[in-house]
Amino acid sequence: MVLKAVIRSALAAVVMLVSAATPSWPSSLADGASAFRRGDYVIALRKLRPLAERGHAEAQAILALMYQQGSGVPQDAVMAAHWYLSAAEQGHVGAQYQLGLLYDKGHGVPPSAVIAYKWLNLAAARAEPRERDYYVRIRDAVASKLDAEQLAEAQWLAASWAPKRAR
């Protein structure tokens, strides 16, 4: 029950991030995000996949969500994790949060509370105020699974992280 609420909340946060599309985005990204919000996943996929492959973090995060949900593509946790990782490595907060959840549960990636904490900590540190408290609570729940040495490692991983450039 709690997991469903967490997933629902997280998906809502990603959709809110998608909804905040700005006119400075390439038009195909805005078109793809708009198609995604309308539920036109065929158009969304056609617009977003080429951008995701060229390294647009927002397109990668939306594509990851499509794979996570099975919206217009076969549901595939491994592909979702791949695209979330690509966006998270560039500093996309929503993707960092979602990736942390995937590592916590081992969906599409090997389960690792240490890696989950790293991504959740990064997301919490850069989240908008309305999401920050929630992200911190989830991060702290993951932290409760770690011993002191694991927590120190997870904090070191987060502190030493730096965003990568789009490929």
Overview of this structure, please?
The protein has a single domain (2-160), classed as Alpha Horseshoe (Serine Threonine Protein Phosphatase 5, Tetratricopeptide repeat). It is built from nine helices and no strands. It has helices spanning 2-19, 27-38, 41-53, 57-69, 77-88, 93-105, 113-126, 129-143, 148-160.
Straight-line N-to-C gap: 39 Å
Bin the helical content: over 70%
Shape: elongated
CATH superfamily: Tetratricopeptide repeat domain
Low-confidence sequence ranges: 16-24
Structural class comes to: mainly alpha
Return the CATH topology. Answer: Serine Threonine Protein Phosphatase 5, Tetratricopeptide repeat
* N-to-C SSE string, H for helix and E for strand: HHHHHHHHH
CATH class: Mainly Alpha
Main pleated-sheet profile = none
Question: How many structural domains are formed by the residues?
Answer: 1
Q: Work out the strand percent.
A: under 5%
Rg, alpha carbons? 15 Å
CATH architecture: Alpha Horseshoe
The helix tally amounts to 9
How many strand elements? 0
Average pLDDT metric: 89
Keywords summarizing the entry:
Serine Threonine Protein Phosphatase 5, Tetratricopeptide repeat, 167 residues, elongated, mainly alpha, single chain
